[in-house]
Design the sequence.
């Protein structure tokens, strides 16, 4: 029974749950960025070039006689750059929000600490 209890404590820790949420959101965000690159950026920016090369999409960009798919690589590279930049902006914003949170004022001494300080002071006075 101890194994399952340890696993439950591990699984519900804040960091693990945050990581799981991040992975799920990251996967969904990756799909959005892929669609942005393939459906909006590529057609808007590269359409004139693709028409001159007589290609339907960037994935068809291949050097004749080779199996190297430069177009697929360029598409993946553009997607990566957009995802990395968007994540950079998100993390920068989150860090800014964390820094802006006011620091809590240190709490005064607890009752136990007050008693210990009083005992310390009495012992100092007695030994002096």
Sequence:
């Amino acid at each position: 029974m101890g194994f399952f209890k340890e696993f439950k404590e591990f699984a519900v820790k804040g960091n693990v749950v945050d990581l799981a949420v991040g992975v799920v959101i990251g996967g969904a965000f990756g799909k959005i960025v892929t669609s942005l690159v393939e459906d909006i950026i590529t057609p808007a920016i590269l359409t004139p070039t693709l028409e001159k090369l007589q290609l339907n999409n960037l994935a068809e960009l291949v050097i004749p006689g080779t199996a190297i798919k430069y177009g697929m690589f360029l598409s993946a590279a553009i997607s990566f750059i957009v995802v990395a930049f968007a994540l950079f902006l998100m993390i920068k914003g989150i860090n800014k929000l964390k820094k802006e949170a006011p620091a809590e004022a240190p709490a005064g001494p607890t009752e136990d600490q007050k008693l210990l300080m009083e005992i310390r002071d009495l012992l100092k006075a007695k030994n002096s």
